[in-house]
Amino acid sequence: MNFVTAPSILSADFSCLESEIKKIEQIPDSWVHIDVMDGHFVPNLTFGSCVIKSIRKKTSLFFDAHLMVDNPSSFLEEFADAGVNAITFHIEETHFPLRLVKEIKALGLKVGVSLNPVTPISMVYHLLPLIDILLVMSVEPGFSGQKFIPFSIDKIQEANRIRKEQNLHFLISVDGGINQDTAERVLSSGADILVMGSFFFKNDFSFVKNFLSTLRER
Ligand code: DX5
Ligand code: ZN
Fold first, then answer.
1. What domain range is 109 assigned to?
2. Global confidence as pTM
């Protein structure tokens, strides 16, 4: 199976972010998933552009910033300057998604759109030809370590079906509760990117590495 592994640094040890990122570098086809939360859109606070700027100096890995903030358009330039490669915003955060897509592209970045678990794909139907990444949330956003919501599988399959029928090229990313019990099913449903928080950072690293390389061989 071909897929991108996108460890979420929300679950990393913040006292040694550089060495946590060096772990990600050991995984083939890996990105850094950066969960930005503002305490308004979701009931949790994480980090902003200063942290991203610091880790940008330590690696050339692809950075996808998953914005869980109110008013995402007011942060775009700041995150672009900090060195992210993609900005993923939530459809629930904005009334003007077309404008936001345009603004992100104008900064030379890849664009992702994310859906909360109960938000249907029809909400982003018209955006699908314009975006690079569709991020399907398989838990309510805000915290790592939650359990995968089973109906997310239907949404991944639906996105994959629309992509094939319309010959579109967005990547399907899945975020929340990805581990040894859910990863394979998510990939066989059509996902391309596995976001992993607690599974990646809270387990023994050689176990995680072996799991991912076995999955790749299947
Ligand atoms: C949740 C975040 C996720 C989170 C995933 O709002 O968007 O990226 O870090 O963590 P796990 O993999 O532990 O569910
Ligand atoms: Zn995320």
1. 4-217
2. 0.98
